[in-house]
């Protein structure tokens, strides 16, 4: 599997993602500039990654301008053909703005930027320690959509405490139903606010991020 990491003006996690994929997961990575359009070297077995940061300075809404970049037009076409796409933090916001994922990311409930290690889980991974760093990470959708996401197993991660309990105190941003990440119905587009690329190195004493990539099928 080959990875393309999109670089927007304002991206600040693109090199972290490149380093994690290349050096910790031994994957081939191609950096993609936001003004480019060509994804012809990628097949639907490959993955395009939208990294964290502040694309276009987060003017208007987070991810709202990036959604109209030349590269994102190609990414949307790639995803609609079945290609895999992963959005982390700002990348998750861009995916929601582009309509590739449902719902929206709102300002954190406490109206403060949060930067710390949190725990998240699903029934397969158990509790994983993964860093977050965002000011607009509160996932929101209406109840009927949330019920549909749960029914279709589209919620890929919930915020939890170290023991795996999902509760309000373990929710870093007020996300509805403690949602930390979701996927589309087709299962090829993934978005999450926590940063797995910041938890793949033994030198950081945390490799739980590798389990995230493995769960998503990127091993």
Description:
- The chain is α/β, with parallel strands linked by helices.
- It has a single domain (2-215), classed as Class I glutamine amidotransferase (GATase) domain (Rossmann fold, 3-Layer(aba) Sandwich).
- 22% of the residues lie in helices and 26% in strands.
- Strands 2-1-3-4-11-10-9-6-7 form a 9-stranded mixed sheet, with helices on both faces.
- A hairpin with a 6-residue loop joins β6 (114-121) and β7.
- The radius of gyration is 16 Å and the shape is globular.
- The mean pLDDT is 96.
Radius of gyration: 16 Å
Q: Tally the helices.
A: 5
**Overall residue-averaged pLDDT value:** 96
> Fraction of residues in helices?
10-25%
Q: Uncertain segments of ≥5 residues (pLDDT<50)?
A: none
Q: Which fold name is given in CATH as the topology? A: Rossmann fold
The 3D shape can be described as: globular
Give the structural class: alpha/beta
Number of strands: 11
CATH superfamily: Class I glutamine amidotransferase (GATase) domain
Total number of distinct structural domains:
1
Q: Major sheet: size, sense and barrel closure?
A: 9 strands, mixed
* Main sheet strand line-up: 2-1-3-4-11-10-9-6-7
CATH architecture field? 3-Layer(aba) Sandwich
Strand content: 25-35%
Q: Which series of helices and strands comes N to C?
A: EHEEHEHEEEEHEEEH
Distance between the termini: 8 Å
CATH class: Alpha Beta
